[in-house]
Amino acid sequence: MNNKIYSNRAWWLILPMLLLVAFSAIIPLMTVVNYSVQDVFDANTRFFTGVEWFQETLNNPALQAALVRQFAFSLTVLAIEVPLGIGIALLMPKKGWQASAILILVTMPLLIPWNVVGSIWQIFTRGDIGLMGWGLRELGYGYNITRSAVDAWGTIILMDVWHWTPLIALLCYSGLRSIPDAYYQAARIDRASRWAVFRYIQLPKLTNVLVIGILLRFMHSFMIYAEPFVLTGGGPGNSTTFLSQSLTTMAIGQQDLGPSAAFSLIYFLIILLVCWVFYTAIMNLQKDKQLDKGA
Question: What is the reported pTM?
Answer without folding.
Answer: 0.84
